[in-house]
Specification:
Elements: H1 6-12, H2 18-32, H3 67-75, H4 79-90, E1 93-94, H5 104-109, H6 112-118, E2 121-126, E3 129-134, H7 140-150, E4 154-158, H8 161-171, H9 176-183, H10 189-197, H11 200-225, E5 228-235, E6 240-246, E7 249-252, H12 263-273, E8 285-293, E9 296-307, E10 310-319, H13 320-323, H14 334-343, E11 349-354, H15 361-372, E12 379-383, E13 394-397, H16 406-413, E14 420-423, H17 429-440, E15 444-449, H18 456-463, H19 468-474, E16 475-487, E17 492-495, H20 499-504, E18 517-520, E19 531-542, H21 545-552, H22 557-566, H23 572-581, H24 587-594
The structure holds zinc ion.
The site of zinc ion has 9 residues, from loops.
Length: 607
Amino acid sequence: MAYASFKDFCVAADLCTADQFDDWRMGYSQNGSAEDGSAEDGSAEDGSAEDGSAEDGNKEKSSVGSLFELVREKSGKPETDFLSLIGQAFDWKPVDFSNLEPTKEALRKISSKVASQHKVIPVSVEEGVLMVATSNPFSTDLLNAVRFAAQGPVNFVLAPSEDITKAYEKHYGVGADTIDALAQDQVDEEEDLELMFGDEKEIAEGDQEASIIRFVNQVILQAQKSRATDIHFEPQEDNLQIRHRIDGILHVMPMPPALNRLQAALISRIKVMSGMNIAEKRLPQDGRINIKIKGAEIDIRVSTVPTVYGESVSLRLLTRDSVLKGMDTLGMTKEIEDPISKIIRKPHGIVLVTGPTGSGKSTSLYSFLNTINDTDKRIMTVEDPVEYEMAGVNQVAVKNDIGRSFAHILRHFLRQDPDVIMVGEIRDGETAEIAIQAANTGHLVFSTLHTNDAPSAFTRLIDMDCEPFLVADAIEAVMAQRLVRTLCPECRVEQVVSKEYLLSVEFPPAQVPGAKFWQGKGCDACGERGYQGRSGIYELLQNSEAIQAQVIDRAPASVIGQLARSEGMKTLREYGWGRALAGVTSIEEVLRVTQVSEDVAEPVENF
Ligand SMILES: [Zn+2]
């Protein structure tokens, strides 16, 4: 079916009435610019869709978006539905990037700059005709720019804007337009004009600097958007590799090949941002960047190490928002959150969080502190290093090279009248002893220990030469934890599992009938990983008189554990099963993180 104009189509498709359309167009024209008056003279109505001049939608002004977009928004239809209506009406074919790879030949025809500016992706070249995907088929600016860039015939096809953005990042690489502009030996016509009148060298250098700054910002922004915790710039023999760590797993970021030529400038820029010495290239350095991206404050710890191919730079992103989570977002169910909320408000005693590196211990401690952080409490922390600065909290960093150890600082804290003390980690007997002393003299102490489960915390402290009766007295509770990856909500499907399998992984037999499990198939939203984000699983041991007696008797952790279970403690794995049954994670993930071994953890402390 053909329509004379975009307006006819909108009316026929019941998107609006003719009057509404005119109203919108008028409002749009007034908002756009005075030159748009031509749209109201009626001449546009003659445009026929077949020759690609459905003029009504053409009055594009980048500041206000196109009339096309306005109508789509007003219609309230999802973009995909809207595009398929347009496609049927005007005979524009849809493309689906989930099973389509643009050809190299096509990609070469449209520069990253044009693709980025007009949000188009070249798809293929068929018999000399370039197929280009767009989500805004009525923009004359776009159509003209693409036809000009292609230097040949072009056929347009339709795809949702989100798919186009994703395809752009995948095939051109993040920041490709910036890098292309930098690497180009020749400059644009407009820039040529400026060069003729200005100091050529100065403009070129200033330009490069501004673009490098922009590129680094783009990389950080992209990392933040994909919830990466780390960005690694890794010089290799013939290119610069950039990898992100997302949910504990490393991913190579697609980057434009011209990047390696700008390696030195890039690394210098990051060193400047993080306050490092840019001339020093032979020694490792540490630094810090504090920036605000789209309103979110991001604290970045930067470290450089000289490798054979140049300086390798690692950025760890610490967003305040992600750290100072409420306890409700840590994956704690009521059965953990309720008792923990009470325990962390007690006047004295030790609360320990245990687990291997990368199990989210510090995130839990910070959320405890955040929960009880009030003006009527004096909170002091000793950390190595201070990971997040918290308002109203007195934080001290360990500096072993000048004798400022955990134990040393902690001893001094006791004279500073704190109510709550957080010790980043108990690693040695001396620190353990002072922490216990602090707890037994009326302070609430939070700390972490490297043990696999909660009951082992008691025996670990006794192994550090602490008096068993003091340990038994001081400890209020121990919470062991791990992080499981959470299933992608977009592609989560039910998983069929046999009873035999469940029993073989020690799933409680009584719960087997009717048990339902889930797995992630993998989709665009999760980058085919099947998981998005992470959540904690917990084992909470609350001290009791019976447990105290066992600790004083130097009972092994297994005996303390059995006793705690008889008093209602759920093990990490049992808690994990609950999360798998709730569809939060998979059986495999629970098994992966609850294997009894020190090396199951991933090297990421925050999530
Ligand atoms: Zn998915």
